[in-house]
Design a protein that fits this description.
This protein has about 475 residues and is an alpha/beta fold. The chain has 2 domains: about 10-110 and about 330-425, 3-Layer(aba) Sandwich (Rossmann fold), CATH 3.40.50.720; about 115-330, FAD/NAD(P)-binding domain (3-Layer(bba) Sandwich), CATH 3.50.50.60. The chain contains 18 helices and 18 strands. Helix 1 crosses helix 4, helix 5 (about 95-100) runs antiparallel to helix 16 and helix 6 crosses helix 7. The longest helix has 17 residues, at about 385-400. The chain is globular, with a radius of gyration of 24 Å. The structure holds NADP nicotinamide-adenine-dinucleotide phosphate. NADP nicotinamide-adenine-dinucleotide phosphate binds near residues 202, 203, 330 and 378.
């Protein structure tokens, strides 16, 4: 038998997921000199790129250009894409064991954290992640509805997702019309009556999770005046004592927010407030069971070990709102056949090697990358070193002969498995056709693309069947 990692017997790797965490692993594996690696990437959705397509805000097109790096990896002959193929349904762990020497899971964090307060499930209270997926044309969320007929929205949390949601709600129709936001969202937001958007942080400005360029952008919106409460922006003693002299990033953040204090309103159609040191304790409903207000408690900040924590005072505030977006972080979900750390929402691992908590040893041939490995933190670029670490663990294990036996490594055997499960895989060549059609549809109106938002539309394009005609 030919030696593994040669052209006659390449190291066969399956990557589950096709977001940045998946592509950075593929890119590093395919770059390896002296080891032939074949990468098959499986994606549940019809299109690749995960959160670059469905998470990155439509008014942040530049960030999406990272896909050029991924396209380069995908263009290599040793790379294959199987879109519209779901792990656990069309392909199981046992199947992957038969066909691959190594398996890397890069499935992200697919659900949202909850607040755990009364009223969280009232009509008009939504996870921000659903709104983001909706306006980005995610097939699973295209049919969600958000009542934008009220005037006031609260976004709980001050991370970059909360900022994205607030910004999209404050963008003018003209601004949104120049993006690749889903068509139905463009229409719904054009009809929106929202006038006041409040971002609500439980700790102070020095602890705000949003990054500085995102904070600065909030003060530059053509359609919304920015507003802060001077006492909430002022640096408290605990934060001042903890702020290191060389922490220029936080100092810059504070300066950006300080600059908002003295700004007179310019009479723009919307108002965007950033509030701090407030925690929601209850979402209050009206007699129809719809959100009508937020009950908030003012917090004080205390040093607790190496973290500054918010502790409630006995002062409360009621904020009338018509809509609430809860944006307090994503959460990973368990994968069939893999160990899972429920508390962290991640798969236990060491440098990307999946660890069996029962033995403390590595699960042979099984790896993770991205949010399912480290939790939902960091920006897209964070996944590059993270993916490299996982890929290098995989290559080191392969070099040491620690791989799965993969008794049926041929592509044909693998594709027979998919056919048996009635999968209708979408190839990378198919994706190029989808991409071309989307970009072409955007061109006449100057949009970067008009997204196809359902599998039916995608198959109609690829197979020439009419959309709505039971593809
Ligand atoms: P995040 O950055 O972890 O922010 C979560 C926010 O929720 C924090 O403000 C946190 O406050 C707050 N929070 C958590 N539990 C809470 C509770 N019980 N009550 C009130 N507030 C609570 O998460 P994210 O915004 O979902 O973003 C996920 C990752 O994607 C981040 O790394 C982010 O930078 C990245 N991302 C980047 C971009 C970009 O680069 N433009 C865009 C979107 C997302 P505490 O700090 O007090 O815990």
């Amino acid at each position: 038998m030919a030696q593994l990692g040669t052209d006659a017997a390449p190291l066969r790797v399956a990557i589950i997921g096709s977001g940045p965490a998946a592509f950075y692993v593929a890119e590093r594996l395919l770059k390896e000199q002296g080891t032939a690696v074949a990468v098959d990437m499986y994606e549940r959705l019809p299109t690749p790129f995960g959160l670059v397509r469905f998470g990155v805000a439509p008014d942040h097109q530049k960030i999406k250009q990272v896909t050029r790096v991924f396209e380069k990896a995908a263009g290599q002959p040793a790379f294959r894409f199987y879109g519209n193929v779901e792990y656990g349904r069309h392909v199981t762990l046992a199947d992957l064991h038969r066909h691959y020497h190594q398996i890397c899971f890069a499935t992200g964090a697919q659900t949202d954290r909850r607040l755990g307060i009364p009223g969280e499930d009232l009509a008009g209270s939504h996870p921000a992640t659903e709104f983001v997926a909706w306006y980005n044309g995610h097939p699973d969320f295209r049919d969600c509805t958000f009542d934008l007929s009220g005037t006031r929205v609260a976004v709980i949390g001050v991370g970059n997702v909360a900022v994205d949601v607030a910004r999209i709600l404050c963008r003018t129709s003209e601004e949104l019309a120049a993006t690749d936001i889903a068509d139905y969202a463009l229409e719904a937001l054009a009809r929106s009556s929202i006038r006041e958007v409040s971002l609500i942080g439980r700790r102070g400005p020095a602890q705000a999770a949003f990054t500085n360029p995102e904070a600065r952008e909030l003060g530059q919106l053509p359609g919304a005046d920015i507003q802060v409460v001077p006492e909430e922006i002022a640096l408290d003693d605990v934060s001042r004592a903890a702020l290191a002299e060389d922490d220029t990033e936080t100092q810059r953040k504070l300066a950006i927010l300080q600059e908002f204090v003295g700004r007179p309103p310019a009479g723009k159609p919307r108002r965007l407030s950033i509030r701090f040191k407030l925690s929601p304790v209850e979402i209050l409903g009206d007699d129809r069971g719809h959100v009508r207000a937020l009950r908030l408690v003012k917090n004080a900040l205390v040093q607790d070990g190496d973290r500054i924590r918010a502790v409630p005072t006995d002062t409360f505030e009621e904020m009338p709102v018509d809509l609430v977006f809860r944006s307090v972080g994503y959460l990973g979900v368990p994968l069939p056949g893999l160990p899972f750390d429920e508390k962290r929402g991640t798969v236990p691992n060491e440098a990307g090697r999946v660890i069996d908590p029962a033995t403390g040893g590595p699960v042979p041939g099984c790896y993770v990358s991205g949010w399912i490995k480290r939790g939902p933190t960091g920006v897209i670029g964070t996944n590059k070193p993270d993916g490299k670490e996982t890929a290098e663990a995989m290559l080191a294990d392969a070099a040491a002969g620690r791989t799965l036996p993969a008794p049926e490594p041929e592509q044909a055997a693998c594709e027979r498995t998919l056919a048996r499960r009635r999968a209708r895989p979408i190839s990378y060549l198919d994706w190029r056709r989808i991409d071309e059609a989307e970009v072409g549809a955007g061109a006449p109106t100057g949009r970067p693309r008009v997204k196809l938002t359902s599998l039916e539309e995608v198959l109609a394009l690829l197979d020439g069947t009419p959309a709505g005609g039971g593809a």
